[in-house]
Amino acid sequence: MAEHTRGNWKSTFGFIMAASGSAIGLGNIVFFSANAYKFGAGAFYLPYLIALILIGIPIMILEFGLGHNTRRALPQSLFKVAGKPGEFVGWFAVLNASFITMYYITILGWVVGMWFGSFGSLFDEPATALPAFNEIGELPNPVGYFFAMLSSWFPFLFVIFVWILNVIIVWKGANSIEKAVRFIVPMMWVMMIGLIIRGITLENGTEGIQLLFTPNVEILTNLDVWKGAFSQMFFTLSLGFGIMTAYASYLPKKSDQVANSLMVSFMNCSFEFIAGLAIFSLLFVFVIQPKASTLSMMFFIVPEGIAQFPAGVKMFGVLFFTLLLIAGLSSSVSLVEALISAAIDKFKASRKTTLLIFSFFGLIGSLSFALPNIIDHSLSSNGTFGLSFLDLIDHWAFSYGLPLVGLIECILIGWFFPVAKLRESINKTAHLKLSPIWDWVIKLVLPIVLTIILGFGISKELSDGIYGHDMQTGPVISMHLIAFAIWIGLTVIGGIVLTLSPTRKLEQTEQKGVK
Amino acid sequence: MRTRQLLLILAFLIASSSFCFAGEVKINLPKHVLGQQEISIVLESMDAELAGGTITITYRPGSKVEKTILLAAPPINRNRKAGIDWIPSEPGIARIDYQSHLKSSPDEVIKASKMVGILFPESPLSGILVMCLAAFILFGGCFVSLNLLIKSNKNRQ
Predict the structure, then answer these.
(1) pTM of the prediction?
(2) What does the DSSP 8-state code read for residue B39?
(3) Thinking of the domain B8-122, which architecture would CATH place it in?
(4) Domain limits of chain B?
């Protein structure tokens, strides 16, 4: 029985470190800056801050409140709220997050590869030859280095290494995660501050900061900017993954969910704020145009800037990739934990067995995203099978899976469960009480916003063609449709199978008690 | 994560290098120039007689606030330079694209690109205000929530 007992965070500090470590990931370091540049720099802060108040914090409170009240991971939490349909949504969210976990760890594997490269030829002047891409010949570094690595089998080793790190950190659940994040998260802040100092002490570095904050207000009439800010907020706070519900389920009974949600949300956005300072100063000093893609920012744009440093290129290269690795690791462990805690809650299986089984299948999935087979010799799309597959799955899991989960979560709790009851329960231990406005934000505002975000995506899909239809995939015919079928098949069919699987007896007794 | 168009970055990398040679022309301009002050974009022909062409300046390329202006470039003789006056109106990053063709062969298009950083003529008050406001809300939010957490921890104990 002891195997099934839920762990607890040892301290609020540990929980805050874990939850903020989960929220602060690769996207915070580079994607925010790319979005800020794209959407009019300083003017982007207005929709961004409104999105934080309007959707970020309310959903964070909802997910924390849900986990804390039910003391279960997302599927079982939603079962308590809306029965089997609720549980299905929970499993859909968890399986969708499994796809994200798998390719996220592949990306971390590439980060490890680039980290090693920082000691070697990653920043060197001569271009890297790319015999695998015979229509390209060679490319300047770090792009050349990245594609040479991608077209080799080395990333398999790095991916295995990152999975091992994840298993070690998640091995003892909240206890071992807490130990790791107490070290990792403060280190992330210190490293980021190091990069800011380097950035602003370069000639014209402070001009980059002026560029980041000076608003171009005419852009605020553009609906794309608002959509960009609201999507950014949803993704940056790790909402819709089931992570926050799982993490909050380990909190002591009397903990304050409003304060916790505020702390994690503000910490996450403050980190983005300072990351923007570092990245913008770097981009402006070396006159580099940011791109709204996390991967190109991480692997090409920022390293391109670091390569032009007057001194300490390798040192700052290592620092940057270490920062990415630890930020990514604190997020990936939370993803793994969200998944295995859901399985433990449902099947009352041993944590270690569940973790090992999940990691085995997760590793196979991650390796499929690292497959180096060249399917696009001209590099007009993504080059390798692995990167193309990652691109396609990412599109469905990230752009549709997460907002869909958020939308249904709000509808279920807002309309099929007395949301006021959840608010009252949260307020019992909260210093700052939630007002009934929160109920209407969950019931009405969030569903409208999330429907608009999803609607935008679907209408684009219908007008431009299904994502990936124009991608060069060589011998793999209709890869975009295959990827979609894999994603929808595994999340929906897997969700149905898991929902219909019998829940352990002990759980059923508990449910009666709650109802 | 959005990896699509990852590879378009290659084109960008070529465009963003300090001096880009494409055919026979080179754009000479400092990496950073001061906004609102006239400067001269110097085109240098390398072993080619170039017909008159165009210079397209794209302010904040790739963003939703991207703006372009078009300037006329004069013909350039072999191994000679030509200057075009320009007042950088928008601070930030800008891309300069030159396009012309060989006098001897009008079908042969000659292109060159260069990225340039345009400095703010003076510290923008609106930028400072946005920075202070965002920092106040975000770090202030951290401070307030930390206070709340401390209070509720005390209550719990």
Answers:
(1) 0.89
(2) E
(3) Sandwich (2.60)
(4) 8-122, 123-157
